[in-house]
């Protein structure tokens, strides 16, 4: 009796462990919402299970390169030093959508009148040169600057534009967070914070700043401005694979580029790759 | 197990041998695992140790520029551990005295088992509570912009190690033989005198062991700390300001180990930090074992 049960349990366990054709994906928490949405419909249509994990672009690339996953999600380009770490592997990047990184501030500061900052003003905050909102016409409160982990795609795009280098140090930062989720929570909990979020993560508690360009033009973080590329922090959301890719993973990539996958991209608040 | 029990008794010696071999293999395996972990840590630390100008004792951590200043992390770990001890030890000791000296044994068992339940709660749950409530309370109490600071991490850790410290301390107090208590009573001592003059000296080494074991746990904690400490690779200024954000070795590992390529200097620097952490924990554990096992030879 006991033997039968344990044998049954063992078989069940083994089948579960060796379930055919699971596609493993990890990486950017910016790309994640669109992918997990598409993964749900893909699984229900084809029966192939898709396992999606966050961790950041840097971690997504590493896990792919080390063979732990089939697809890496990245919200930035692969860096030269990353290519150099794995010289024997050919990588392929596929853009599946477009997004913008938006300088984001606590709603309290936004409502007090700070709705637009220039790139150099944002740089001043992160370099620690300005530390009070009153300098920008806001309330007399110290600025709480939120940075992100160095490997995060969102951070690298943001600092690349603001400070001139993706890996620039930010001595003015008061807190370092990881995922969009964590950053959003920190921004919501503060009444004087500035940070950086992917466009899809903005809401009424965390407001996107308009950016004053060097030529004096103010550009709002709107879908329109992201589509036409005038917002300065626009980026591609990409999937990275190794040159040799499992058929199931290739199917999923194709699915994402197809109409249903692109719909998931749009539903998540990003812009289709075709536009 | 069931097949073992069903066997006829005459073949018991054979099974005894098999069982003995099994136990020996298990014991060897667990020793091997410890040795494997330690040797991996030491070997993988090589690249960063052989690196010139790694600036290990500086405060600048920037793997892209080849700077691996570990001081903020090491300092953060120790600082958080001290705060956790300050939070947990007085409460733990007082509670242990209360439940072992004044309560009925039934109530004592109840209180103890509830507290032991606390040790089973996954640390990420503590972390979420820390993010959702504790960090906001701390920010309000000290009028700060953010409660993601060293103090919050210390308080959270203090709560987490409290059950470990408390149950071990309570054990130490209640295992003092009854004859000491009775003799002291017979001499006409008051209750607090009995405790202070006879019980406490007996239980002292047990309590010290409990404290060191709890501190060891505080050092190794990752998830809860990572979520509330702020993750800034900077020494607080002034140095002993618990109201600034910081970083511990564990929170640094939690945040960065995923992005560092295996075998790189970055990875090696992270491994070396874990080696430092493991060394401290091993020393603490050995000392606490010594205290916990020490027999009371005096009185």
Structural class, judged by helices and strands of chain A?
A: alpha/beta
Shape of chain A: elongated
Strand content of chain A: 15-25%
Estimate percent helicity of chain B. over 70%
CATH structural architecture of the largest domain in chain A: 3-Layer(aba) Sandwich
| CATH level-two architecture of the largest domain in chain B | Orthogonal Bundle
Number of helices of chain B: 12
Order of helices and strands of chain A: HEHEHEHEHEHEHEHEEEEHEHHE
Number of helices of chain A: 11
Please report the distance between the alpha carbons of the first and last residues of chain A: 62 Å
CATH superfamily name of the largest domain in chain A?
A: Periplasmic binding protein-like II
CATH class of the largest domain in chain A: Alpha Beta
Largest sheet geometry of chain B = 2 strands, antiparallel
| CATH class division of the largest domain in chain B | Mainly Alpha
Rounded to an integer, what's the Rg of chain A over CA atoms? 21 Å
């Amino acid at each position: 009796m006991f033997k039968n049960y344990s044998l049954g349990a063992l078989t069940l366990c083994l089948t579960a462990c060796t379930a055919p054709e699971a596609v493993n994906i990890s990486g950017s928490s910016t790309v994640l919402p669109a992918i997990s949405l598409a993964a749900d419909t893909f699984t229900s249509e084809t029966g192939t299970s898709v396992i999606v994990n966050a961790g950041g672009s840097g971690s997504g690339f590493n896990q792919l390169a080390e063979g732990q996953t089939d697809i890496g999600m990245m919200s930035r380009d692969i860096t030269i030093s990353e290519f150099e770490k794995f010289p024997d592997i050919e990588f392929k990047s596929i853009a599946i959508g477009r997004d913008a990184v938006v300088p984001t501030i606590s709603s309290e500061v936004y409502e007090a009148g700070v709705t637009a900052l220039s790139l150099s003003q944002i740089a001043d905050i992160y370099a620690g040169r300005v530390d009070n909102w009153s300098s920008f016409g806001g309330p007399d409160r110290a600025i709480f600057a939120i940075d992100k982990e160095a490997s995060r795609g969102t951070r690298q795009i943001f600092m690349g534009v603001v400070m001139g280098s993706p890996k620039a140090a930010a001595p003015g930062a008061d807190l370092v967070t990881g995922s969009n989720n964590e950053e959003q929570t920190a921004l919501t909990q503060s009444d004087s914070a500035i940070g950086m979020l992917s466009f899809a993560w903005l809401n009424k508690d965390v407001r996107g700043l308009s950016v004053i360009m060097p030529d004096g033009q103010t550009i709002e973080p709107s879908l329109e401005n992201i589509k036409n590329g005038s917002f300065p922090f626009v980026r591609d959301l990409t999937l990275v694979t190794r040159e040799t890719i499992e058929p199931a993973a290739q199917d999923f990539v194709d699915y994402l580029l197809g109409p249903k996958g692109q719909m998931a991209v749009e539903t998540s608040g990003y812009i289709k790759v075709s536009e | 197990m069931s097949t073992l029990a069903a066997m006829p008794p005459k073949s018991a010696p054979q099974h005894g041998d098999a069982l003995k071999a099994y136990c020996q293999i298990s014991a060897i395996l667990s020793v091997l695992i410890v040795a494997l972990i330690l040797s991996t840590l030491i070997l993988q630390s090589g690249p960063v140790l052989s690196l010139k100008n790694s600036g290990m004792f500086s405060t600048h951590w920037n793997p892209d520029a080849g700077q691996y200043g570990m001081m903020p992390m090491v300092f953060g770990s120790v600082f958080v551990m001290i705060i956790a001890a300050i939070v947990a030890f007085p409460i733990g000791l007082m509670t242990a005295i209360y439940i072992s000296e004044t309560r009925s044994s039934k109530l004592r068992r109840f209180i103890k088992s509830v507290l032991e339940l606390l040790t089973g709660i996954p640390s990420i749950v503590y972390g979420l509570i820390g993010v959702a409530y504790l960090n906001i309370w701390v920010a309000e109490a000290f009028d700060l912009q953010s409660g993601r600071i060293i103090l919050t991490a210390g308080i959270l850790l203090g709560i987490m190690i409290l059950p470990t410290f408390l149950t071990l301390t309570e054990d130490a107090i209640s295992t003092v033989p009854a004859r000491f208590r009775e003799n002291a009573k017979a001499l006409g001592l008051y209750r607090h005198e009995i405790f202070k003059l006879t019980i406490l000296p007996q239980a002292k080494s047990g309590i010290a062991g409990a404290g060191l074991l709890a501190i060891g746990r505080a050092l190794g904690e990752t998830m809860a700390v990572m979520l509330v400490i702020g993750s800034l690779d900077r020494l607080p200024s002034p140095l002993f300001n618990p109201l600034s954000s910081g970083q511990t070795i564990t929170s640094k590992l939690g945040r960065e180990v995923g992005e560092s390529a295996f075998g790189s200097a970055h990875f090696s620097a992270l491994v070396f930090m874990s080696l430092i952490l493991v060394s401290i924990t091993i020393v603490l554990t050995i000392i606490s074992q010594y205290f916990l096992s020490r027999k009371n030879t005096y009185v």
